[in-house]
TrEMBL record:
It catalyses: L-seryl-[protein] + ATP = O-phospho-L-seryl-[protein] + ADP + H(+); L-threonyl-[protein] + ATP = O-phospho-L-threonyl-[protein] + ADP + H(+). It comes from the Eukaryota. The lineage of its organism: Eukaryota, Metazoa, Ecdysozoa, Arthropoda, Hexapoda. Keywords: ATP-binding, Cell cycle, Kinase, Magnesium, Metal-binding, Nucleotide-binding, Serine/threonine-protein kinase, Transferase. Residues 108-272 form the Protein kinase domain. GO terms for molecular function: ATP binding; metal ion binding; protein serine/threonine kinase activity. This is non-specific serine/threonine protein kinase. Its EC number is 2.7.11.1. SUPFAM superfamilies: Protein kinase-like (PK-like). SMART domains: S_TKc.
Amino acid sequence: MSKRRVNYKKKLSTSKLEMDLDLDIFEQPKMTISPKLFMTKREFLAQNIVPACPVVPPKLRRCYGRCALNTEPIHGQAKLLSFSSESGAKLSSWYRRDLKETYFDQVFYRKLKMGEGSFGSVYKAICRDDDDLYAIKHFNSNHARSSKYIEVENMEKIGFHPNLLNFFMAWEEGENVYIKMEYCQMSLAQYSKINHNIHENQLHEILHDVIQGLVYIHSQNYVHLDVKPDNILIDRGHYKLGILGYSTVLNRPTEANVCHRKEIQNIWHLKS
């Protein structure tokens, strides 16, 4: 018999022995080691004391938005979402709870997706109530419920201003939240990709409108916290601030802050 074959048999028998030992280790009951002094490591190993293997918990699995949640809305469960008692918004008379279609499908038509992100999607659609075009922001069920509500509450409480994206209503259907907003043609970021040479007078108008919107937000005791070209929207020559999901309310303004805001208004009051 060749040496190679003998070595292979020895190796096989050794590995089998090691496997048996490992099985014995896991099968034996938990032992308590009595406090005893050993002079050397060899003496300790000679006692053949093997501590019980601790129970290892399974790895925690993170879903990162891909958990097995019900992403489909529950039909017939649409309800108005409002944080103000003075809100005059209500569900459309076109909506019928006995149908399987969602509120969005029943009340809006000619729907076209304009964009999507981690929060969900944004559509433009015509409302059957007045045949006007609106932007509908849809938060999917995987998005954090608190952040959906924060944006609705901010837009509702800040109110109307010509240089802010107008909010009309919001509704909830199952785990999904929808916001009905004013439709604007494009964002400043999209416009700058089309037109690389923006004239100084136009930049002046953009700055004026954005500052007017910010001054109003500050007067309502809020800060925007997310001013960028993607959140500056263009609507027939007017510029509006949108996406108030990162806005936060401040404490009651002090007299110094009010004076500072009036000073900014006087400096930037460039239109009659």
